């Protein structure tokens, strides 16, 4: 610098230092401003991300809670506030425990105290939340540890509102209980069977019918429950049901009481895709019905006055006897009988006396033949006898003589003895004779000749003696 026309070196150096200092100050200010701006951007970003995270948490359908290692709450989302009916201030610290229903609180706290978060990464349970002035809320609770550097630093709990689901489950349970109560008390066996023929459901009637404990039935194979004989009767129909066809059939079961008759209905269970997923089985005990049917069949085939076969049963037995004789070449004969002068007995003793004679006459006939032979009353005082397994025509004649002799003993009619005789016509089946009516007609012709011969005797159809 020039001073008084001279260059002052010291002054020049001081000026440069001043300039350099000013530049350094501005540089430092610039750096500080850059750092400040950067910190502001970071802080703004953190606030933005924190706001975004809070929005996400608040939008979650799950209630979210954060607690430190001491179990003190320091955060919960808006969903949790709504579920609990309280704000963070009311749940801060250990205040969250007041939300637990009194019936669940001790259990939950004991289970949490025993939980090893280091080795068991999640704690789950179902409990109820108590809400001020409102019904309890059922929730599925899940607690997971926050791990930092390999050690728990806190806990995050998520709570799912399952009240509606729980109500539906309880309603389903009640519905199943009602269904079980109904099926256990209806007079039938009810079961559901899967496609691999295993019992998925069975009512308690199965225990009574098959002697298997109700608790053991589920999962058992149908063949094991029914046994070989009953399963053999049912297997064909089971396959039909699993092929999609409803079936109805009857089967017999041997039990301690004898034979049990069952009417069985199998209904396929077909889903929306048309696939058979199993079948429903309904089994009714029809033993009493079968006994009534047998009794009715017996009544319509038995003469109510004498207790022997009637015309219907006689026609059936005669057709069977002819078929057996033709197939095996054995001899058979028909005896046609009536009571001599039966009208006079009715006129003198009344119908009560006539009925006594008919009953006694039937019993004497039964005493003259074998158990394998058939004695029937087909009308009024007309009786017929089927003799099977004959080897000669004379055997039929021998039975006729035996019957006539049996009638010689007086009958007791209205308290008084009375002579009762019979006339008999005998017809032996020829080898080519398959007509039951024709065979009976030939016996009737022989009976007519016996009456014409004076009654109390028998006659044999002329073409019967050369049969054998």
- What is the CA-based Rg, rounded? 53 Å
- Output the structural class: alpha+beta
Beta-strand portion reads 25-35%
Give me the count of strands.
19
CATH class of the largest domain: Alpha Beta
CATH superfamily of the largest domain: Reverse transcriptase/Diguanylate cyclase domain
Largest sheet: 5 strands, antiparallel
User: Main sheet: which strands, in order across?
Assistant: 4-3-7-6-5
Q: Please estimate the helix content.
A: 40-55%
Under the CATH scheme, the architecture of the largest domain is 2-Layer Sandwich
Number of domains: 3
How many H/I helices?
14
- Spans of at least 5 consecutive residues whose pLDDT stays below 50 are none
How confident overall, as mean pLDDT? 86
Structural overview:
It is a single chain. By secondary structure, the protein is an alpha+beta fold. The protein has three domains: 63-161, 2-Layer Sandwich (Beta-Lactamase), CATH 3.30.450; 169-290, Beta-Lactamase (2-Layer Sandwich); 305-464, Reverse transcriptase/Diguanylate cyclase domain (Alpha-Beta Plaits), CATH 3.30.70.270. Helices cover 47% and strands 27% of the residues. The chain has 14 helices and 19 strands. It has helices at 9-59, 78-84, 88-91, 102-114, 163-185, 205-210, 214-217, 222-226, 228-242, 287-301, 311-328, 342-368, 393-406, 436-452; strands spanning 2-3, 6-7, 63-67, 73-76, 123-129, 137-148, 151-161, 189-194, 199-202, 247-255, 258-270, 276-285, 331-339, 374-379, 382-390, 411-413, 416-418, 422-428, 458-460. The strands form five sheets. It has a five-stranded antiparallel β-sheet with strand order 4-3-7-6-5, with helices on both faces. The mean pLDDT is 86.
């Amino acid at each position: 610098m020039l001073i008084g026309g001279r260059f002052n070196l010291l002054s020049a150096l001081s000026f440069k230092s001043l300039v350099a200092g000013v530049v350094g100050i501005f540089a430092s200010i610039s750096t500080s401003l850059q750092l400040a701006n950067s910190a502001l951007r970071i802080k703004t970003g953190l606030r933005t991300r924190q706001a975004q995270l809070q929005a996400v948490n608040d939008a979650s359908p799950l209630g979210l809670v954060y607690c430190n290692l001491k179990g003190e709450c320091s955060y919960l989302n808006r969903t949790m506030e709504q579920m609990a009916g309280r704000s963070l201030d009311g749940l801060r610290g250990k205040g969250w425990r007041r939300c637990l229903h009194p019936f669940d609180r001790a259990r939950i706290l004991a289970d949490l105290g025993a939980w090893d978060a280091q080795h068991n990464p999640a704690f789950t349970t179902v409990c109820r939340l108590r809400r001020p002035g409102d019904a309890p809320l059922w929730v599925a609770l899940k607690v997971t540890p926050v791990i930092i550097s390999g050690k728990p630093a806190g806990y995050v709990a998520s709570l799912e509102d399952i009240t509606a689901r729980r109500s539906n489950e309880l309603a389903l349970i009640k519905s199943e209980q009602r269904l079980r109560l109904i099926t256990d008390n209806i007079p039938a066996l009810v079961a559901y069977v899967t496609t691999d023929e295993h019992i998925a459901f069975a009512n308690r009637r199965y225990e009574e019918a098959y002697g298997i404990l109700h608790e053991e039935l589920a999962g058992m194979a149908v063949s094991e429950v029914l046994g070989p004989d009953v399963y053999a009767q049912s297997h064909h129909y089971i396959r039909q049901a699993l092929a999609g066809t409803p079936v109805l059939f009857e089967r017999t079961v041997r039990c301690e009481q004898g034979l049990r008759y069952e009417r069985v209905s199998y209904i396929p269970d077909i889903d929306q895709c048309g696939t058979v997923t199993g079948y429903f089985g309904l089994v009714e005990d029809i033993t009493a019905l079968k006994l009534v049917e047998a009794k009715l069949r017996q009544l319509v085939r038995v003469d109510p006055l004498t207790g022997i076969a009637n015309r219907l049963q006689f026609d059936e037995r005669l057709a069977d006897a002819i078929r057996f004789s033709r197939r095996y070449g054995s001899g058979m004969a028909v005896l046609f009988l009536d009571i001599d002068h039966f009208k006079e007995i009715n006129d003198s003793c009344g119908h009560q006396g006539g009925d006594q004679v008919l009953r006694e006459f039937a019993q004497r006939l039964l005493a003259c033949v074998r158990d394998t032979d058939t004695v029937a009353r087909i009308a009024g005082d007309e009786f017929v006898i089927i003799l099977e397994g004959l080897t000669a025509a004379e055997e039929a004649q021998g039975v006729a003589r035996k019957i006539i002799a049996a009638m010689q003993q007086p009958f007791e009619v209205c308290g008084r003895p009375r002579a009762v005789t019979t006339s008999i016509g005998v017809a032996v089946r020829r080898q080519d004779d398959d007509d039951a009516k024709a065979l009976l007609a030939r016996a009737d012709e022989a009976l007519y000749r016996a009456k014409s011969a004076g009654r109390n005797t028998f006659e044999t159809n002329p073409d019967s003696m050369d049969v054998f």
